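tool_call: predict_structure(chain=1)
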Amino acid sequence: MIASLTAEDNFLGIAEPEFCEYPHCRFVIQPVPYEHTSSYISGSARGPAAMIEASRFVEFYDEELEQETFRHVGICTLEEIKFKGKVDADAIALIEKNTYALLGDEKFVVSLGAEHTVTLGFVKAHAAKYPAMSVLQLDAHSDLRQSYHDNIYSHASVMARVHELGISLTQIGIRAQCKEEADLIRSSSLIHTFYAHRIRTDQNWMEEAIKTLKQDVYITIDADGFDPSIMPAVGTPEPRGLYWEESLEFLKRVISQRNVVGFDVVEIAPVEGSILSEYTCAKLIYRLIGYLSKK
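tool_result:
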């Protein structure tokens, strides 16, 4: 039996058991506080708990969707994955196993990560169920280095590992990369990168990006994909990022035109005295669940 967190600890602070206990819920929140390769500002291991805590101040009623979304689908919050010293390949295998078990129960898995490395485990689990899927990445960084600090499981290499799986990858908002990554993007037919400077000058970028996606799509959202003005508490901030309205409009279009099979939000590094980033992410998560519930 998979344990569900109570209203004091769960996402949104949902009190009614029929809307927050595992057997009744379509959506599950999976906290994954794995941090092993942070290379600039550390602290992402506190990100999942911070997003869940901040979510308890998000209103149940969504004014755009005109509904209390959780009452339509149920949202269960799971206990954090315990890594007990597991790192790199062992940690990824544990994440994949846990996620695949949830998919086997026909749950829609929303994963809250620490460092971006965790996404490899989510992607491998979803790809086992949806072998023809694409990955949609919102991020400031390509994360396509073959290794970083001599670790192929670095957060800066996670999309290189996804690429090796033969999965089509669409990247949005990229604005920081090394030459090795740029060369790989140019040489690979699997990678479709929409740089930040491009989307600022191309009014059709959203539809062009959606055209690159297959029918089944897994979405990974690195918080540093957003502009630091609305998302300051991240490990590696970069200027010229995505803003709230354009991001929601794009994700709404993706959800309406494709079959989104799962998503994650990663790389929040909480800053003492500020809740802007974790609250914004919590609001984003609830809104995306709302879009999916309407679908």
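agent: The longest strand covers residues 259-266. Proceeding to next step.
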